[in-house]
Amino acid sequence: MSDKKIVYQCDTCGHYIGETTATLSPLEANVWMVPSGCVEERPVIPESHLAKWDGSKWCYEITYQPEIVIEPEPTELEKWTYVKIKRNQLIDEVLWEYQRHERESRLGIPHKQTNEWMHNLDLYVQTLADIPQKFSNPDDVVWPELPQT
Description:
This protein is an alpha+beta fold. It has two domains: 4-62, no CATH class; 76-140. It contains three helices and six strands; from the N terminus they run ββββββααα. A four-stranded antiparallel β-sheet has the order 3-2-1-4, with no helix packed on it. A two-stranded antiparallel sheet has the order 5-6. α1 (76-107) runs antiparallel to α2.
């Protein structure tokens, strides 16, 4: 007779988590030292199920099978809407540069940005504004790079 045997480990909720071993007691004959949370009865788990020990027998629960939802491809109108939203966000992100430049001019203080950089910013914003007219397919849009300072 072997001094070890396979037992079946459960988590604190009773769900089967795997096999482990129990050993014979060195102090008592024919007494197995079974780890806490283990049972000696082997679960026979059907496909797509979890085994759960209810205190006297194995019960089987169907595992959650998430519903696979395939999102439809966005329509061309939805793609153009996305392009225009992104374009507007990119323009909005640089408007403060214009406001600062105008304020500096009104106050007669030196500009933080050069006139050349402001010209490049104008070209960037105009390129963004022209995207719907320049591209016939929203998937082909090439986004301009913000000019470096």
